[in-house]
Amino acid sequence: MIKTNELPNITGFAATDSFLVDSAQGTGRVTGGAAAEFFGDYFQRGDMAAGKELSDSWAQLKAKVQAGNYTGIHVGDYKTITLTGGEVVVCEVAGINTYKNHCDTAVGNHIDFISRDCLSGGRRMNPTNNNNGTANEKRPWLASEMYTTLNDETNGIYAKLPSDLKSAIITKRALMEERYSAGGAVAADTGWSWGDMGKLWLPTEVEVFGHHTWSEPGHGTGGGGCNLQYPIFRYKGVIKGNGNGGSRCAWWEVSAARASATGFCDVGDGGFAGYNGASNTGICVPLCFRIG
Q: Is the entire prediction scored with pTM above 0.90?
């Protein structure tokens, strides 16, 4: 095997020679001069190349993922879907095998998708300003109204997904915070446990920003635990619109706010880490799912 830095130099490129690049228009060939301009701009921005629409069907993508074949698939690539009712959602590759071999039961090959923009319209996390779990379900996320809003197979967002996409989705396994006391609402996590986040979920504050700001450090879906920043958020994707191509909006994360019995963490419309009361109906949600 030859390492990249051991390959011989190639000289004598002409401006008319062509190179393969990814752009907003897809993958194609450009001349040497255009390629130099493209990559110069790319590195100057410290950005990632524009993603391309993936031509594979969801079933084909699932088969590729299960085989560990990610040829032609990159972070930022996307597929466009239409929900029942006509809403269009652009689903971007947020991470490839980000959590492979993590968790109590080792996670297999997977791709996690997070929509470029949020679903249209704000949605509350809970009917009241409460970020605690319950006696029957101590994990705030699984006890939340938002979990049901997303995952209910009859009336939830999941029910509106195209059938071929639903067939490709698997549940996301995670280390989740617990926040419950029989004595009343508490403003800090009381423990953690492994569990399934559902077929549709929200990212943690750490998965978005790479560190905790308003989430609880040291527990599951707060600032500690099994949390890795998704590659897409190292470069772009934190600013999201209210609906496909909509004006920028605040959007929910799954993490309960620290020192608070009422709030959940979110991303402000200006791209900053924040939190809001759980009953706030003006905060949007992205569409997040795992293929594997």
A: no
